[in-house]
Amino acid sequence: MSENQNLLAEQRRALILDEVRRRGGVRVNELTRRLNVSDMTIRRDLDALARQGVIEKVHGGAVPVVEASTHEPGFEAKSALEPSAKEDIARAAAALAVPGSAIALSGGTTTFALARHLLDVPDLTVVTNSVRVADVFHDAQRPAGGRGARPGAATVVLTGGVRTPSDSLVGPVADRAIDSLHFDVLFLGVHGISAEAGLSTPNLAEAETNRRFVRAARRIVVVADHTKWGTVGLSSFAALEEVDTLVTDAGLAPELRAEIEEHLPGLVVAGDVPPAGTTGAPPVTGG
């Protein structure tokens, strides 16, 4: 971990969380030496991470919270986790969208962040099962002064279904709606991702709805911050090899990047500085 005293609190806490998960626990005195900050600063960081529910404080340090594979946090709880990483991912993923294409957005806080950036991509047709995502486009299209929707505004289709804790609509109604459609690209948020379990979620109905999304799309782009790697939910709905591109953040360890690249053709690490002479990843087209 970095010895930089000037790390922002959020960056420092991300490093601490990664260390806790990687090693299965850390001690306060180890963290003060590695991060070159005070004992009090580390304890405040641990308090903040414990309030988010991602670690458990123990005497002299912290251990990871082991969640049941059926545990599904609510939208607000998930929104508080890795906000900067999600914003970086959303910005990078939006650059992959092609004007005039038909795209699908699954539910989740990262796809919610992505939706805000997609407002600048003209003439999209957006299908989503996320109430939150649909609201982003709906609010942006409300006419000012009684005028009609702005030119190039996205056409949005919201599926029906039963609402989950993360404000996604799932179940047979959503499944039937998705089965009749075809997308150029699916931008897919996930609860967990691993080489063995692939893409997974704690919600059985959501797993089936996500399977339908995957089947209906010509290309699959997963948007997931680095903390999702290694997490496994109750139900897998796609293999890692079915994914065309994973857009993640710079917190992903180099050894994990190499492992991921063995399983899928495209990896975009948002926040990384591209090598000289490159322009970043190309847009994801329908072909």
From TrEMBL:
UniProt keyword list: DNA-binding, Transcription, Transcription regulation
HTH deoR-type domain ranges (all copies): 9-64
InterPro entries referenced in this protein's UniProt entry, alphabetically: Carb_Metab_HTH_regulators, DeoR-like_C, DeoR_HTH, NagB/RpiA_transferase-like, Tscrpt_reg_HTH_DeoR_CS, WH-like_DNA-bd_sf, WH_DNA-bd_sf
Gene3D superfamilies, per database record: 3.40.50.1360, Winged helix-like DNA-binding domain superfamily/Winged helix DNA-binding domain
Gene Ontology MF annotations: DNA binding
Keyword Lipid metabolism assigned: no
Top-level taxonomic group: Bacteria
Database matches in Pfam families: DeoRC, HTH_DeoR
PANTHER family: AGA OPERON TRANSCRIPTIONAL REPRESSOR-RELATED (PTHR30363:SF44), HTH-TYPE TRANSCRIPTIONAL REGULATOR SRLR-RELATED (PTHR30363)
Designated name of the protein: DeoR/GlpR family DNA-binding transcription regulator
Native source species: Streptomyces sindenensis
